[in-house]
Amino acid sequence: MSLPHALLTALLERPCSGSELAGRFDRSIGFFWQATHQQIYRELKRLEELGWITALEPEAGRGRKRAYQVLPAGREELRRWTGEAQEPKPLRDELMVRLRAEAVIGPTDLVRDIESRLAQHLEKLALYQEIERRDFPDGGVTRQRELQHLVLQAGVMAETLWVDFCRKAIAVLSEADVATH
Amino acid sequence: MSLPHALLTALLERPCSGSELAGRFDRSIGFFWQATHQQIYRELKRLEELGWITALEPEAGRGRKRAYQVLPAGREELRRWTGEAQEPKPLRDELMVRLRAEAVIGPTDLVRDIESRLAQHLEKLALYQEIERRDFPDGGVTRQRELQHLVLQAGVMAETLWVDFCRKAIAVLSEADVATH
DNA sequence: CAGCTCATGTAACTGGTTACATGATTGA
DNA sequence: TCAATCATGTAACCAGTTACATGAGCTG
């Protein structure tokens, strides 16, 4: 249940409205946690009811922008949750299911799809490295910057892994194709 | 929507009952796709209604073991799905949300949790490497074995990444702790 | 035949997704 | 002033999770 805490974090970094949050979830925060605007509005309402956030200008509803800020109770809840133990989620990837299916039913078009994934991961890797070069030329200086850098590095590491794996998979699938024909 | 296709793959590898499938989802298949027995039974019923699988012995219900095998229509569906294009799912990890929260609200107990995660990832990595040593001493020989090996390697790569990342995170969090006190 | 375990199954709930609706603001 | 766009919101749905129930078969 990370969404409420991702929202608290985002609102602490800078108070803003639901639509702005949706925008931020398409960029920085969205690199490691995604949310649609429907989820965000639903959750903001809940957080307000819980007394963890409050609207800055108590003006009314539909169509009018409504910015929120975090209340002390929200900050306290975020602190509690951040230090809480969590089990690491096991790997869960559709591509692995497909590879295992290929192993059973023989050659399919899967290799085409992996080539296209490779291109996308290369693109994302380049994006992250560009951001890293621009925003963290000397790593992080303050504690906050170091932690932000760390999260970005996780993205770089993950995309690098995917690039490596896609190349390996393409090699295996192509080689096997040749041997089969 | 991988579960039906994971089940088709498992049943092609070896026809079996729901409870046996649940067991297999705790081991090999479960390393990259998890499912509870409730999900499995629900899905098996659906697959049978779709005409993709059929019970081997048409004996009745509750309490009696019911083994299934894949029908030609099921195999065809699996082939179709395997070659289908899929967008790579973006990284989505609670730990990144927590790190970002730490960056905003200052030191918490997070580093303890990461130390415990590190131990778990090391354990899983050792398990995967043990399986690799035992089952793939010379890599894969046939196409099928090579693909199975590839999937296992993905597990090794992912756990290695997590081990590296946890160590990096512990370094940053500890160092920052010292600087803060 | 009592009690245990195995195998199958039901029900309620949660987080996330998709499709659609409506009020407010802006600018040609 | 009206069409486009922005901001907020409702509803239905889907995959996955948790808790619990019940029939079948085995063992002491």
Automatic annotation (TrEMBL), chains A, B:
<dbReference type="InterPro" id="IPR018309">
    <property type="entry name" value="Tscrpt_reg_PadR_C"/>
</dbReference>
<protein>
    <submittedName>
        <fullName>PadR family transcriptional regulator</fullName>
    </submittedName>
</protein>
<feature type="domain" description="Transcription regulator PadR N-terminal">
    <location>
        <begin position="7"/>
        <end position="79"/>
    </location>
</feature>
<dbReference type="InterPro" id="IPR036390">
    <property type="entry name" value="WH_DNA-bd_sf"/>
</dbReference>
<dbReference type="Pfam" id="PF10400">
    <property type="entry name" value="Vir_act_alpha_C"/>
</dbReference>
<dbReference type="InterPro" id="IPR036388">
    <property type="entry name" value="WH-like_DNA-bd_sf"/>
</dbReference>
<dbReference type="Pfam" id="PF03551">
    <property type="entry name" value="PadR"/>
</dbReference>
<dbReference type="InterPro" id="IPR005149">
    <property type="entry name" value="Tscrpt_reg_PadR_N"/>
</dbReference>
<feature type="domain" description="Transcription regulator PadR C-terminal">
    <location>
        <begin position="91"/>
        <end position="173"/>
    </location>
</feature>
